[in-house]
Amino acid sequence: MEHRRLGDSGLHVSAITYGNWLTHGRASAETARACVAAALDAGITSFDTADVYGAPDYGAAEEVLGGALAGVRRESVELFTKVCLPTGAGPNDRGLSRKHIQESCHASLRRLGVDHVDLYQAHRYDEGTPLEETMTAFADLVRQGKVLYLGVSEWSSDQIRRAAALARELRVPLVANQPQYSILWRVIEAEVMPTCVGLGIGQIAFSPVAQGALSGKYLPGQTRPDGSRAADERGGRFVGRYLSDPVLAAVQRLRPMSEQAGLSLAQLAIAWVLKDAAVATAIIGASRPEQIAQNAAAAGRRLDPDLMAAIDAAMVDEVHGDLVERDPAKIASPFDTMASWKAREDTAVA
């Protein structure tokens, strides 16, 4: 397994991170433990979770991950978790206030069974809390030894710049950004990635296989396979954006390229995300242990320039033009911002 530095920090992370958004807390504990064991066997040392994962049983994913890693030498793994999205019904059970950050961090440490996390990330930007309050609360956790490094997820370039300025003033290490990034979703390339490179912030890319759309299992003109993420109501909200026939046809155009490179479509997608040194690691999920070994094999694979050009060409057709999402205004999923959470709650109340 290849390891890379996270931004300009001294922290090394595995090029593949195992994330448990849609699995732990929903799969059986036995399956979850088997997946974590498979990740360790594949050389993965970095593990990503969040306080909201496992909803509506908030924190369930952290508990399962902590249990699965019990007995593993703490210094040999890097634990990432997050705070911001709602973990309860109260007005202080969300956001990036000092109160919620402190309480959520302590709860995450308890569920994970550790005394510190390697990386603590602001899961989304909170327009309702002064950024100074947020960054000071994070800095206090760093000084208390409960958090080693700081990160953000799905923030705009301007928000990242302002946070980085405060981090420098507070003398704490803001070293990571966790955006979605894939062959189909290249939003960060316009503004976020250049900003982060200039600030020494590394990318922890999630959804490199576009929620499974780049695995090739969804075919144009066909129904969604039973048991797939697209067939699941929760997962289907996220992968649905990629399931138009033109996009699925473009994915199928990648198949002969992946075969020629000796890679599965999913491996090709992950290798593509890892092509840039600005990306420190790509997050993969799994519902079965064998998926982890297969996808982890993408680490260290280099794609030659001709193949990269062919991939770009496959994402364009005569009728629909460019099928890749590049709009820098679309930082986060429409289902996954603080504003969208509040809008959904207001609608439910109405």
Automatic annotation (TrEMBL):
GO MF term set: oxidoreductase activity
GO biological process: methylglyoxal catabolic process
UniProt superkingdom: Bacteria
Entry-linked SUPFAM superfamilies: NAD(P)-linked oxidoreductase
Protein name (record): Aldo/keto reductase
Family designation: Belongs to the shaker potassium channel beta subunit family.
Pfam families: Aldo_ket_red
Key words, A-Z: NADP, Oxidoreductase
Domain NADP-dependent oxidoreductase residues, every copy: 16-314
